[in-house]
Amino acid sequence: MRILFTGGTGKAGRHVIPYLMDQGHSVLNIDLKPLELDGVANRLADITDLGQMVDVMSGYRDFDDLDEGRMGFDAVVHFAAVPRILLNSDAECYRVNTLGTYNVIDAALKTGVKKIIFASSETTYGICFNRGERLPEYLPVDEEHPTIPEDSYAMSKVVNEVTARSFQLRSGADIYGLRINNVIEPHEYAQNFPAYVADPSLRRRNIFAYIDARDLGLMVQRCLVTDGLGYEVFNVANADPSVALSTSEIVSRYYDGVPMKRELGEHETVYDITKARRLLGYEPVYRWRDEMGGTEV
Fold this sequence. Notes:
Layout: E1 2-6, H1 13-22, E2 26-31, E3 41-44, H2 50-57, H3 64-68, E4 75-78, H4 90-110, E5 115-121, H5 152-171, E6 174-180, E7 183-184, H6 188-198, E8 211-212, H7 213-225, E9 231-236, H8 247-254, H9 274-280, H10 288-291
Parallel strand pairs: 1-2, 1-4, 2-3, 4-5, 5-6, 6-9, 7-8
């Protein structure tokens, strides 16, 4: 497929794009900075400018297209955003993320794209950036859990989901939102996980979950090859928690009194990925224990 990928120079995108290219896709990266990777075409463009989005989506991917006269794209993967709070003003974070997502989806549909995948976030559940501590209403946290956050970043992601659903209703396109948990790059296992083993409470705001950047690539690929779902949102995480405790120990230590919707496996994430497994055939590959040589320290 010919894929227009926004935000490919960021932490997640720079791993997802190589994965997609390994699957045989050709990619145009839209960002404010280029991704220096062989085979990737780059275009510098601002997602908050609708005209720029329509222009890049209706144009050539790279110089090779000049000979064939081919323009446009088969799918859009939208990851570009202000990635969290406390980087710029709250209002600017909200503006960029909501306006940018509106423009990307609008431009994609106007240029004939029928498959759009966009990055939502675990923060929509109101736990990650909440002031003080907020417990889930139940476990495991699935896509039916209420999304009522307090912060500007998570608010923007909830708005983006509503925007995407509205666009899908009027267009009939497939638009899938990914509630991506904390993205972990391969080098971060040795760098960060010893601290998580020593102090599991460091992972409370992430609902004790994580997503390997390479498995995020797998998730995007599963979305690309699965058609006909209309509008859907999916939790995206690895299969196991990001700490050395068993799931029952996590629940008893940190979620005492929180209702359980179902029984969980010994090392099953409490950030539920059942829906992605069922509808997309998603099955994550990487486990932090394996990446650290099977050790837990």
